Amino acid sequence: MGRVPKLTRADAVSAARNPLAFIAERWTPQPRTVRRAALAALVMAVVIVVTGGAVRLTGSGLGCPTWPTCTDDSLTTTRAMGFHGVIEFGNRMLTYVLCAAVGWAIVAARSEKPWRRALTRLGWLQFWIVMGNAVLGGIVVLVGLNPYTVAAHFLLSTALIAVAAVMWQRTREGDAEPRPLVGKAVQQLVWFLVVASVLLIAVGTVVTGAGPHAGDSAKVDRIPLDWETIAKAHAVLAWIVVTLTFALWFVLKAVDAPKGPLERTRDLFVVLLLQGVIGYVQYFTHLPEALVAAHMLGSCLMWIGVLRVLLSLRERPVQVAGLPGPAAETELATA
């Protein structure tokens, strides 16, 4: 193990002024380290959604009745608050773990050589979404679990998953101009799939806001719509997404598309089928908490699958400095 260099006064000043640049000057991570950091941020974005669902499903949404402290007199949960306080406060603490994962992704992306500004910006975008959602989560508590704020909280988490998924994908490819792997018609079909998926997720938040799991044992306002009618509309949208996915797979096979889009579409189709089974079972068994939690996880995986299909429609070769994209590929192939 080599000697640790002494930290001079100039180093301390430099680190204080720009800690990311200071670290980047002294550390170059392996590409797989950057990929793992981006994947960790994505995994934590999903975990925070599932644990947030656990807070609602256990009726712990007001386990800490105020924000940013847990009670008016205590920053943390107290013994008197019992199980619900532990669940709600534990979910709040997981936000710090999520921040650490996103911070690690930012540091790794900033330290990679050559520096890819687009990756760092995606990391910072995740950070600001996390900060915004933390504040929104506090508002959710302060307004007594208003269902519209709860829906917005979930949708912002979905946006975080989208950015994290894009960053993870970008760590696995180069920075050359994207080259399409399929034709315009297929791209348009995939965009229809993306829009339908967004609508599916949005209507799912309405189902939650109108449904029986309000998030706390106290009286909580609900969206004034018939829950079963909205659930049926949600199911219709789910079938539209499934149909579009199957049509996409059929078209990709017909045009002899590359392996990547085909595999991503197949994976998405499997996730959708499993999610559909969970959805119907939970509906006919009157929404048991465990199945609702599994359905929330499935929603996250479905959204990631849709984004992976979209991102698989193009490729970004690694670009060697001074050479255009295709020339860079040739250079790397002969190196």
Question: What would you say about this model in short?
Answer:
The chain is an all-alpha fold and 335 residues long. The chain has helices at 9-17, 19-26, 31-57, 82-111, 117-142, 147-170, 184-210, 227-254, 259-284, 289-311, 325-334; strands at 179-180, 314-315. 71% of the residues lie in helices and 1% in strands.
Description:
- With 335 residues, the protein is mostly helical.
- The protein has eleven helices and two strands, in the order ααααααβααααβα.
- It has helices spanning 9-17, 19-26, 31-57, 82-111, 117-142, 147-170, 184-210, 227-254, 259-284, 289-311, 325-334, and strands spanning 179-180, 314-315.
- A two-stranded antiparallel sheet has the order 1-2.
- α7 (184-210) packs antiparallel against α8 (227-254).
- The chain is flat.
Reading the helices and strands in chain order gives HHHHHHEHHHHEH
Strand content: under 5%
Q: Enumerate the spans where pLDDT stays under 50 for 5 or more consecutive residues.
A: 321-335
Can you count the helices?
11
Largest sheet: 2 strands, antiparallel
Strand order of the largest sheet: 1-2
Radius of gyration: 23 Å
Structural class: mainly alpha
Distance between the termini: 32 Å
Average pLDDT level: 87
Q: Helix share of residues?
A: over 70%
